[in-house]
Amino acid sequence: MAKDRSAKTRRVWTVSVLVSASIFVFGTFTVFHGNVSEFEVGYLSLLAVLVPPGLILVALLLVLGIVCPSRAVDRYSSALFAFAVLLWVQGSFLMGSYGVLDDRGVNWQQSSLPGWLDASIWILVLAASIRFSAHIAALVPFMSGVLLSLQLILMLTLAGASREELWVKAPAPQGRVPMELLKYSSSQNIVHIILDSFQTDIFWELVAEEGLEDDLEGFVLFKENMGTAPYTSFSIPAIFSGRIYDGMQPPSSYYQDSIRNGFQSRLYDAGYTVNLIPHESMESGKYTNYYDIPSVYGGRWKEIVHANAARLLNVALFRQAPHWVRKQIYNDNNWFIDADWFIDNNWFIKSPVVQPVNVVSFQEKAFVRDYVQNINIGDSKPAYHFLHLIPPHPPYVTLRNGAYAGNVLPNTRENYKNEARAILQLFMDLVDRLKELSIYDASLSLLQGDHGSQILPVVDGETITTCVSRLAALLTIKLPRSSGSLRVSSAQTSLLDIPATITRAIGFGNGMPGRSVFEIDQTEPRKRPFVIYQEGGDGPHISKYSINGSVFDPAACVVEGHVAVLINRPQYEYGMEIRFGMMGNSDSYMGFGWGP
Questions:
Q1: 357: CB partners within 8 A, 6+ apart
Q2: Whether pLDDT at 172 is above 60
Q3: pTM attached to this predicted model
Q4: Which of 45, 260, 366, 380 could form a disulfide with 41, with the two C-beta atoms 3.0–4.6 Å apart?
């Protein structure tokens, strides 16, 4: 019996290590290596969390092999080897496009073709491995060792050519907002808040329900305001530069040029303290202080590592799983691996969740509470304070009373309102704090969305299908020294007007494109542009629209045409670094098959 057990162990242990390493080491490294900037910690810190469950899996697979009847060991080891190969093939060659996994929804039925393709490949390969196990099993230990060695060599080769922060990354400051960001001017402040996907009609409903008209003293709501694009990465440069994307340069060049020459850089040159807390990178522009909100704000180091490890493992599993299994791993943004499984060093028992450490909206709300409570008066130098916060962007996880729902909620209007309600209350706390410090009256304050939401607007009780998606972006502004309850303007405004509005309000004249929203008559018709960027088989292109009339009029859209994005194709030279993302240079090099 002991001899039989030893033979089984020798036959199974290498392939058990291969399966486990494919999931917990090679799979996670592949995701991490291409997305280092998405994580707050280095890979070694995450590996320390991932190795223990990996060893448990090895032990479990070994035990199953040992207790297998002798006649079934060949089939078991052959099937395990096939499973490991399928993990690699799926993650390397069969990764389809699922869009942004942020609970705006993946149309799984529309993607049924890759589902049937994946299922066919997995069933055929596993069936063949069992059918021909008598021929395969004898080679499994050797082939498993070869695959382990090759993947390890590839991993170390990639790591050797990478930045040092791949392995070890200094932790971001935790627990408190940097003091420099909390210093408000005693003379003049510009307070600029973007709440991602905040839609005009939702804001107006919440103001009425909560009775906030008097509390929003001096504010004007521009109910006909519209965005410039349905995506944040095209909205932010338009907001700061006053220029809409026209396709005449790669998106990354447009983004970087817009931030570099944005109104915040002009404020810096004019002697303002410029404090930036962005969501998209703004490092190409000028600033005094800059802060990225960490994914676990104020958390212990262990919580940060576990939250990052759960995110990494979920994406790795999603990448390596066949199409229909991916649906279960994603689970409408209630991901299969929960960071709270790690918190008490207990992989199998999930602890009750009170404050979610891996839910971005709650982490950012914790940051805002800390920020508001600790604002204080500094010197008299004028200051610009910019905060871009994710809420009320999906996923929706907040109940009406502001508590955590315990899981991701469906994309309904009520759930969206509850998400918006919680972050709006924190904005009102900021308003109260500025009044308490006696700097509210002199401040220029803006609260806005970067675009609308996927939730259809409701106007006068009627649900509206806008002519293009996410059109109705919130914009409400308080000029210095303005008073009275919240007023509503019907002026046809655009987020492109923000640079001119800010610079005119502080006496900078007409230095920026656009018009001040306060100089647009409420009866004046305007032709306002909107663009949609799309990838296609013939390369990227933009669809241009103009909105002639109300943003809530489905017939207001005029299609201006489709323009191929102009991308220069420089010659690549060996050793040249390719950086992806809006702050990178990859647009000029990506051809067919590459996506953002």
A1: 296, 299, 303, 306, 307, 339, 340, 343, 363
A2: no
A3: 0.77
A4: 45
